[in-house]
UniProtKB/TrEMBL annotation:
Organism in which the protein naturally occurs: Kribbella amoyensis
CC per GO annotation: cytosol
Stated name of the protein: Spore coat polysaccharide biosynthesis protein SpsF
Pfam families: CTP_transf_3
Superkingdom of source: Bacteria
Family matches, as InterPro entries: Cytidylyl_trans, Nucleotide-diphossugar_trans
PANTHER family: 3-DEOXY-MANNO-OCTULOSONATE CYTIDYLYLTRANSFERASE, SPORE COAT POLYSACCHARIDE BIOSYNTHESIS PROTEIN SPSF
Length: 243
């Protein structure tokens, strides 16, 4: 079974424009993200848009030797479907590029669970019931099922949010498998990049604590030891589905 990681990236983010191209510790956040994903040993594809604003993302991925698929800016489902077709994936891991400290071992655990059953109707994620910090999110699903969703989904939210057709069980036969963290619920922490306050926290973690080399448990340990770090972005509300 050929499984690949597809990460979506664009420069036209609203709350923090071109956020993945900003830098910390001498690297763009996108490079941090891609470096972490490479540790899974799985092929990684950047799914970006045909918008000229995204040329820097294409160029950076090229410099790093990461393939790029370019598609619709708003119809992200069709973008993922195109990447799956082009790379002939039997299964896909969906992540987002605003997770520069995503833990490869966390993703790999989900992939192992998916491979163990390799069922066409299986959807595996660690955020169906969230226990990991934001920034560690992944979703894993069958390539053919995502292609079928692309063919059948008509709701604008399903086209924009890629996997809602699957995890909302529009077909009536999907089986959802949640992967909780054995350390308990630590979802209060935000290790994702969406706002200037998120950037302040991530920059501090990377430049002052060597976060680029740390796993999820190590990062949480730092946050627990330094509540002033958590205070930097604990007030941020995540955008809701459809916003």
């Amino acid at each position: 079974m050929k499984i690949g990681i597809i990460t979506q990236a664009r420069a036209t983010s609203t709350r923090l424009p071109a956020k993945v191209l900003l830098t910390a510790g001498g690297k763009t956040y996108l490079q941090h993200h891609l470096d972490r994903l490479a540790e899974t040993g799985l092929p990684v594809i950047v799914a970006t848009t045909t918008n000229p604003d995204d040329e820097p993302i294409v160029e950076l991925a090229g410099e790093l030797g990461v393939p790029v698929f370019r598609g619709s800016e708003l119809d992200v489902l069709s973008r993922f479907a195109g990447a799956i077709r082009e790379h002939e994936l039997d299964g896909a891991v969906r992540v987002t590029s605003d997770c520069p400290l995503i833990d490869a071992a966390v993703v790999a655990e989900g992939v192992e669970a998916f491979r163990a059953e390799a069922a066409d109707n299986l959807y595996v994620s660690n955020c169906i019931q969230r226990t990991y910090p934001r920034g560690m999110d992944y979703e894993i699903f069958s390539g053919p099922r995502l292609l079928q969703a692309d063919a059948d989904a008509t709701l604008p939210a399903d086209r924009e949010h890629v996997t809602s057709y699957l995890h909302q069980n529009r077909t009536g036969d999907m089986r959802l498998l949640n992967m909780p963290w054995d350390r308990g619920d630590l979802s209060k922490y935000r290790l994702t990049l969406d706002t200037p306050d998120d950037r302040q926290l991530l920059t501090a973690l990377i430049e002052d604590f060597g976060a680029a080399e740390l796993n999820c448990a190590d990062l949480v340990a730092i946050m627990e030891k330094h509540p002033e770090l958590h205070a930097l972005n604990e007030h941020i509300e995540q955008k809701k589905l459809g916003e």
